[in-house]
Write a structure and sequence with these properties.
This protein is α/β, with parallel strands linked by helices. Among the domains are: 590-725; 728-936, Rossmann fold, CATH 3.40.50. Helices cover 60% and strands 8% of the residues. Strands 6, 7, 8, 9, 10, 11, 12 and 13 form an eight-stranded mixed β-sheet that branches. Helix 5 (74-90) packs antiparallel against helix 6 (94-111) and helix 24 packs antiparallel against helix 25.
Length: 939
């Protein structure tokens, strides 16, 4: 049996990675309080009090313990702190005894001695309660509460930890300690992140820099341009440096990475490094380099920078090496080295030679010297380390398998077993579930019959532990893992049951998946999307395997489920695209939408059987009005779809392409996608085809598919939709055809002129559909707002440059005064239509194009269609000749204006306008008519 490649790596959640990467920040905050500035707070002694030798001895003990703590000699530091406690107790100096107990608690925490740490902290707080009010008491009490917060955080008591830090914050405010208050706010933001309270965490951190940055929350922060943010950060770095600012900026940079703003994270972290260098603090520089490396790694994995991947990977490597070189703490050095190892393994997925580099690097680490704290942070470090080791011994690499220098399977399993035991002893069920689940993933990776049995045992144990947590974000991963295991064991119905539970958990998270863990956006394609796709594959496989006596009813059930999962995948992609849960659904059966329309759901599935490794399957689900769904399957050669689609894209973007060159490719896709359905479409007198397209097929217009005699456009009106769940239908015949028109004809922001825009907008005006257009300088955000508010219109027509991308921030419409990204456009149109008498029925965008080199760019088109609030969106997939676009728009609005008489829908109006170009010899090449598509409500 072929093992499931990369399962272990894929299964280690982003939450685990996030906690692991934050280790350096946690230590840095501690050292800030107790090493980077001054020794621990000691109550001042009145000048009238005689200083005796015993007091001097106690002071020396404090100094000695502080130095030992700074140097990482924690066991020795604990012994000296105990002596200091006894010395202050003998002197009946309760304040300083409380101080020493707090720092003893902190030292025990670092040693993982939680019972002793808790006892010392409680003794400190009890002593302080008996003391009269004074400035010194308040300082030490705040410090004790801070240390209690660390302790509670490390044992997973997040709510209590936040409460402790908030109590300390009140004291710091009362006693006018702004630097300590700033440190405390950084601490609070950390535990808020662990609780999933990312907006609150961001707001708390920004309060530390409110004066310099001038923003109060992350949404406002995200609106800053790179230039604006750079200018604000330069103001901070030009001022006197402090460790508070260094750590605060580092914390903010880490948080920005978690919430999907890695470019801003990089700018903020660079500023933190500048301040750390000004302070000449090697440890703070090391901690910041560690964060810089994490952000560079995230950027390398970000789809929008694929062409710069190696540059970012090298930046990450350099940063980790600097962190390991500069740090004075063994724990920071170890983390930098392990992050470096993980990075090399990540690169190994693109460059096999990097696996050899990773192996050599691991051997250079002296693995026997690695030590992990028996704390919550240490547990996650062990899991992350075990993940890296599992990557090193992936069984498909026979040379590595035979290399006795590499860690053994049993050694990795032991590491995870220890992590699970430590988590159980700590009472941290979440960490225990992760450790057990990753043991299951490890055995799944090896893949023998006995291993799969063990994998199932540990996975079910993880699910049992997590069942009491009500954490669907964790449970979905292990139900998914269980589904894979049961499939490998040959039990397809049980595998479907497990996958369905994973799917249901994701559905329950759909409204707040981003809030639970924003970093999941970076791994959506590896950690979320496969659940949907693999469930669809199982459903279809099972439907086709059913015996005749069970086939019809059960098969229909499976096909309906597969169709629903495909639609849910589209919604999940859009929420991930926007980096927020903003897509609302309104599911309706197709026969309630249009009795003359059929909906086509194609999905490309990789064959998991080793004997057919070079074969993919194109599965097409067809939904017809008042009929159960039907399934059609076509076997394809691996990579053939991608190569065919890329060739068609190249043909379509060139008006010089000869039909004899491109026709065989158009016919090939027709044979894959339409010919199997052809008879059913004809028998049901279908007039409109609505496509819910899978990733690769989104990149070409369905209108160009050719049966050898005519284009698909000549047989059917065609529409696209991310799913029927997003359709809010209203027939074109019920719409008052009145439009706001605007456009840019002059060169602007590096874009070429569009001289025919004047003619395009004039044609619409001449039909009486629109009044005077907003052209060039008049096409501003404010003017469009005013027109929407003061007009009763159903159509907004924008003739301007626009770009669709798989990244929301890179999907934009060019207004005269700004590039408006998809989120800003949605706010503009939605906010204003709330007060208008009619919603926008149709948004028309001409002169659009998909981002070059972005194979998922059409996701941006779907994003515009959904976010704009318009029932339908018409746009172009590539920028075409100005004159043909003007002619097309004239024909389109003629069809729309006559709709009440002709009884056609929007897809049919689009079809007729395209056919007018197709039948014009000058514009018969698909380059001119094929890019126009309608997305959303086609009626």
């Amino acid at each position: 049996m072929k093992p499931n490649k990369g399962v272990f790596n894929r299964n280690l959640t982003n939450q685990v990675k996030r906690i692991y990467h934050k280790r350096s920040l946690f230590l840095a905050v501690l050292l800030f309080m107790f090493a980077s500035t001054a020794p621990p707070v000691i109550a001042k002694v009145s000048q009238t009090t005689q200083i005796v030798q015993t007091q001097s001895d106690a002071q020396q003990l404090v100094n000695q313990a502080t130095q030992l703590y700074r140097s990482g000699q924690l066991q020795e530091a604990a012994v000296v702190w105990e002596k200091a406690v006894s010395a202050f107790s003998a002197q009946k100096d309760n304040l300083n005894q409380a101080m020493a107990l707090s720092n003893l608690s902190l030292t025990y925490q670092q040693l993982g001695q939680w019972e002793k740490a808790t006892k010392a902290n409680q003794q400190s707080l009890v002593l302080l309660q008996t003391q009269p009010q004074s400035q010194d008491k308040q300082k030490i009490l705040a410090q004790a509460l801070d240390i209690q917060g660390y302790l509670q955080k490390e044992v997973g008591q997040f709510t209590q930890s936040l409460e402790s830090w908030q109590q300390a914050a009140k004291i710091y405010s009362q006693i006018k300690e702004p630097a300590k208050l700033a440190q405390n706010q950084i601490n609070q933001s950390q535990v808020m992140q662990d609780m999933g309270l990312f907006p609150r965490a961001c707001k708390t951190l920004l309060e530390v820099f409110n004066q310099e940055l001038g923003v109060s929350d992350c949404q406002e922060f995200s609106q800053l341009s790179s230039e604006e943010l750079t200018a604000k950060l330069q103001k901070i770095t030009s001022e006197s440096p402090s460790v508070t600012k260094v750590i605060g900026l580092r914390s903010l940079g880490e948080l920005l990475r978690f919430i999907g703003q890695p470019e801003q994270s990089q700018l903020v972290l660079d500023s933190s490094l500048i301040l750390a260098q000004k302070l000449n603090s090697p440890q703070e520089q090391a901690a910041t380099y560690l964060s810089i490396g994490n952000t560079a790694k995230t950027l390398a994995e970000n789809e929008r920078v694929r062409r710069r991947r190696e540059t970012y990977y090298q930046q990450a490597v350099d940063a980790y090496m600097q962190a390991a070189k500069l740090t004075t703490l063994p724990t920071t050095r170890q983390q930098a080295q392990l992050n470096h190892l993980g990075l090399l393994l990540k690169q190994g997925k693109y460059d096999p030679e990097k696996y050899q580099d990773a192996k050599a690097f691991w051997l250079s680490l002296n693995p026997q010297d690695l030590k992990f704290s028996p704390s919550r942070t240490g547990i996650y470090e062990q899991i992350n380390y075990a993940q890296s080791l599992a990557e090193l011994i992936q069984p498909e690499n026979s040379q590595q398998k035979q290399n006795s220098q590499l860690p053994s399977f049993d050694e990795i399993d032991k590491t995870l077993a220890e992590a699970a035991t430590q988590a159980k002893n700590l009472g941290d069920k979440q960490a225990e579930a992760y450790a057990l689940g990753n043991r299951g993933a490890l055995y799944e990776q090896r893949g023998s019959k006995e291993d799969l049995s063990q994998a199932e045992k540990f996975t079910r144990q993880a699910l049992n532990v997590v069942s009491s947590l009500e954490s669907p974000y964790i449970s979905y991963q292990y139900f998914w893992q269980l589904g894979r295991i049961r499939k490998a064991q040959g039990d397809i119905p049980d595998a479907i049951a497990a996958y369905t539970k994973a799917y249901n958990a994701l559905q329950s998270l759909r409204s707040d998946l981003v809030a639970v863990n924003p970093e999941v956006q970076f791994s959506f394609r590896s950690s979320v999307e496969p659940v949907y796709r693999q469930l669809v594959e199982l459903e279809l496989e099972y439907a086709q395997s059913l015996k005749a006596d069970k086939k019809e009813q059960e098969s229909q059930k499976r096909l309906t489920q597969a169709r629903n999962v495909l639609e849910s995948l589209q919604l999940a992609e859009l929420n991930n695209f926007f980096r927020e849960a903003c897509v609302e659904t309104n599911s309706k059966p197709i026969d309630q939408l249009d009795t003359n329309a059929a909906v086509v759901y194609p999905i490309i599935l990789s064959n998991q059987q080793q004997s057919n490794a070079n074969v993919e399957r194109l599965e097409v689900i067809l939904s017809l009005p008042k009929q159960p769904p039907r399934l059609y399957s076509t076997k394809l050669k691996k990579q053939e779809v991608e190569e065919t689609v890329e060739q068609i894209q190249a043909f379509l973007k060139s008006p010089e392409t000869k039909l004899e060159q491109s026709l065989p490719y158009y016919q090939k896709v027709y044979d894959w996608l339409i010919r199997p359905l052809q008879q059913d479409l004809e028998n049901n007198k279908i007039k409109t085809l609505v496509f819910v397209l899978d990733e690769k097929l989104r990149n070409i217009p369905m209108s160009v598919l050719h049966d050898g005699k005519q284009y698909l456009l000549q047989k059917y009106a065609i529409a696209l939709t991310p799913g029927l769940q997003l359709i809010n239908p209203k027939p074109l015949t019920d719409i008052n055809i009145k439009a706001i028109t605007a456009g840019i004809s002059k060169p602007r922001e590096g874009f070429k002129e569009l001289p025919q825009v004047r003619q395009e907008l004039k044609q619409i005006e001449d039909l009486g559909v629109a009044s005077k257009s907003l052209l060039d300088e008049k096409f501003t955000t404010k003017e469009v707002q005013n027109q929407i508010l003061n007009s009763d219109v159903s159509i907004i027509h924008l003739a301007t440059h626009a770009q669709f991308s798989s990244i929301a921030d890179d999907t934009f419409i060019l207004f005269w005064d700004q590039r408006m990204n998809v989120k800003q456009l949605g706010n503009l149109l939605r906010n204003n239509t709330l007060t208008s008498r009619r919603p926008i029925e149709l948004l028309v965008l001409s002169a659009c194009e998909t981002a070059i080199g972005d194979q998922r760019a059409t996701l941006g088109l779907a994003g515009v269609a959904v976010r704009s609030g318009a029932r339908s969106t018409m746009a172009t997939l590539w920028s075409v000749q100005d004159e043909s676009t003007a002619k097309f728009m004239g024909n389109l609005y003629s069809q729309l204006e006559q709709a009440k008489k002709t009884k056609i829908n929007k897809a049919q109006a689009l079809q007729q306008a395209q056919l007018a170009l197709l039948n014009d010899q000058q514009y018969s090449n698909p380059h001119f008519w094929a890019p126009f598509v309608v997305v959303g409500n086609w009626q």
